[in-house]
Amino acid sequence: MITRSQLNLKKIFAVLPVPFIVVACGGGDGSSSDNAPTNGTLHVAMTDAPSCGFDHVYVTVNKVRVNSSSNAGDNDSGWTDITLPAPQKVDLLSLTNGVLFDIGRAPLPAGQYQQVRLVLNANQGNSLANSLVVSGTTNEVPLATPSATQSGYKIIQPFTVPANTLVDLILDFNACKSIVQQGNGSYSLKPVVTATPLTVSGTISGFVPAAQAGATVYAEQNGQVIRGTVADGNGQFVLTPLIQSSTNGTYDIVVVDNKLPSGHATGIIRNVPVTASATTTVSTSGAPITLPTSVTNTVSGTATASAQASVRALQSINSVSYEIASTNANLDTGAYSLTLPAAAPMIGTYSPTLPIALTAASVAGQYSVQATSASGATQTSAANVSGGGQSGVNFNF
């Protein structure tokens, strides 16, 4: 595994091993001819947020398409296609804490671009281009990718490629929020992908105890997950890229270890700043974010199957909400289940002087479960897991 900081990213791009897709779609050294367009260089990289309940999520990338229009259709003009020398099968769940995978380069004229599309290979017979392995099992099962093998997954993110300049764009493929189970036990990909230009971004890093390796760590704003990762075997986590605070505001770091039947209380560090091309440290290996153990219980129910709902659990502390867990309701049955710590979350405010003190909040086991349909309609229900699991938290759209 290779980790990185914003300060040495461009050097690392030149020598990357597997995982984290880097598509270099720029390339030009900059043409000086009056009659020829001048090129810049664009790296499009793919990373992943943590996945819920899976050990591996594989996708096979066929090509990347770039267009200057956000409304461009499949067959419209203006597309630059970056076809890989050979399709690349990548385990999305290995794309955490700054691990990278280099794919190659292609020329891209300087200018402003609006749309990126990620085109995948299709599963063919017993040959699984896109698949997953459910935690606790060893079988690789197919992952359906509607439209991904034809028009590709569409990401709208304005970015500019100046002449004679390298621009890095990171695509964050959130596998946890992108995988949907169907009633027959099969799985589909409903992608949740965001894009961040590295020119205005930085990093937040820290440690939990090594015993809490595998804990999920999120960078959030206003209860929305912006970036996520998993603490490695040493307890280290790296959240990158994050748009600098002078542009986008500060971040709340949320540490969740919700293993069944016992994990740890949630940890929250508020108001963490990010500076472009720099790393903000919230804890060290010698003084990691140490959280008390906690029983974990489940909230379960159904959302109207036709709603194709996503479901998440929030905790509100001093009128600020934090996302603790999320899942997609089953496409055929609408069933969902969320695993949540029963103990009170531990909360503190960022200070450059470490360690950051954490104190228990007064919302032990209290959650707001929010379901959002594919059309954008939202319903919310209170849930309390302090005394055990809660079933029948249903949503009817």
Outline type? globular
**N- and C-termini, Cα separation:** 44 Å
Number of strands: 29
Instruction: Please indicate the percent range of residues in DSSP E strands (runs of 2 or more).
Output: over 45%
Query: How many helices in DSSP terms?
Result: 3
Main sheet attributes: strand count, strand direction, barrel closure: 8 strands, mixed
Q: Pairing-aware structural class of the strands and helices?
A: mainly beta
Task: Point out poorly predicted stretches.
Answer: 1-33
Number of domains: 2
**Helicity, in percent?**
under 10%
Question: Can you walk through the features of this model?
Answer:
The chain is mainly beta. The chain folds into two domains: 6-191, no CATH class; 202-384, Carboxypeptidase-like, regulatory domain (Immunoglobulin-like). It is built from three helices and 29 strands. It has helices at residues 9-13, 175-178, 245-248; strands at 21-24, 39-49, 54-67, 80-91, 101-104, 108-109, 111-120, 131-134, 141-144, 153-161, 166-174, 179-181, 187-189, 193-197, 201-207, 216-221, 224-230, 236-243, 251-257, 262-272, 279-281, 293-302, 310-317, 320-328, 335-341, 346-349, 359-360, 366-372, 378-384. The strands form five sheets. Strands 3, 4, 7, 8, 9, 10, 12 and 13 form an eight-stranded mixed sheet that branches. Strands 16, 17, 19, 20, 22, 25, 26 and 27 form an eight-stranded mixed sheet that branches. Strands 1, 2, 5, 6, 11 and 14 form a six-stranded mixed sheet that branches. A hairpin with a 2-residue loop joins strand 23 (310-317) and strand 24 (320-328). The longest helix is centred in the first third of the chain and has 5 residues, at 9-13. The chain starts with 8 loop residues before the first helix and ends in a 13-residue tail after the last strand. The model is unreliable at 1-33 (pLDDT under 50).
